[in-house]
Amino acid sequence: MRILISGASLAGPSLTFWLVRAGHEVTVVERARRPRTGGSPIDVRGPAVDVAERMELLPAIQRARVHTEGIECVDARGRRTASFPAEVYAEPGGRDVELERADLVDVLYGATKDDADYRFENSVTTLEQDVDGVDVTFLHGRPERFDLVVGADGTHSIVRRLVFGEESQFLRHLGLYCSILAVGPELGRENWGVMHNVPGKLAGVYRYHGKADAVFMFRSPELSYDYHDLDQQKKLLTDAYAGEGWQVPALLDAVRAAEDLYFDSVNQVHMPTWSRGRVTLVGDAGYCASPLSGMGTTLAMAGAAELADALAVSWEGAFERYEQAHRPLVAKAQASVSRGAGMLVPATSLALWRRNQLTKLMPLVMAARRMFRR
User: Fold this and answer.
1) What is the pTM assigned to this prediction?
2) Domain count of the chain?
């Protein structure tokens, strides 16, 4: 079949890998100039590790591993108040791999770029489908017809909007905003995440491979702003953190000087179905669990494999098989985020104190884990 995929981050190239090996003709369109590589390190977990092994890409992914030692919490003067060794939140005895997002994108794109038609700086503008196919127009180039169209274009998916309606129907704001940008490595501690909390706010630095990212996360009701207005996003961020201690003033200087940064609400995507006619969704476009879950990459890679497996059986009923197989993992990931929010961004002084006191039990937790592994 001729299959169009919108999005060249993680879900799109993952699906492309399977489809071209099944003999399909795949076109991938991406608004950016190149594969989307930005963002802090990500995790390949559980079923995604198995998928990477099936793809014979696991060794390359493991070679790019980031060796995080843990997370350290500090007060306004930089004094440690809590610590989370990596062993506490990693899967005991598991094969999970943390690596830079750019490295994983490079692995997936490198494995598919010669077998698919990647078109950068382009985007879908209209979709019209009938029982036999989908007519697509693009920002650049002539209209084309495809047998299937897949939206792998993220939380603010164009394909989802064109086929299912405005995103406000499907996005659930989780009461938080998040921002990530590159900063000088002198602000961080190698292989550690260092974060400073006040009630309802987190500011942190994660240093790895000799470079560092600043991470901000703060509680807020939904804000009205232009997703494409960088100056407006910078102002929202600097206003939210004005007057805070620790290294926050230096981090805000980096915000003001940044030529680009990630800023978005922390959302989940909930849809009654991910498919309509000959169009379906993969990854954040259909079932974003939010960064708080730590499962976005896993859902994207596992979802792509489930969809490809369903199509390998037959086109008839493939989308239904895909949803039936993948929804339990999505539901589990989406249900996990409230715990993550409470640990990363405690809402009150009491909740922050409790979080810090809880870390005193971590040595006992780790000892118990080691004992049960024997």
Assistant:
1) 0.91
2) 2
